[in-house]
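Figure 2 data, in text form.
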Amino acid sequence: LGGTRGARVLAGGQSLLPALRAGEESARLLVDVRHLEELRGVGRSAEGIRIGALTTLAELAAHAVVLAEAPEVAAAARANGDPQVRNLGTAGGNLAAGG
């Protein structure tokens, strides 16, 4: 990615794809990271809760650890769009897009 000018990371695509279609963004290369399992999931760590960048909003909204230890995060994930958006949108994508 660092050596490819105009490369963009694609995961859920909820913000990037509409912006590309509208001509608001451009990309010479889209790098699909959806299958990088190490970037998925929720778990506990010594520092607190670990939320992988590719964890969907639906997963965040329903995860037992998030519900118990960070209910505000679960509520924010539930409030984000409709079920289709929550099933595709990722935690990392929402942070990157300012959502």
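Caption note: Strands lie at 7-10, 29-32, 42-45, 48-51.
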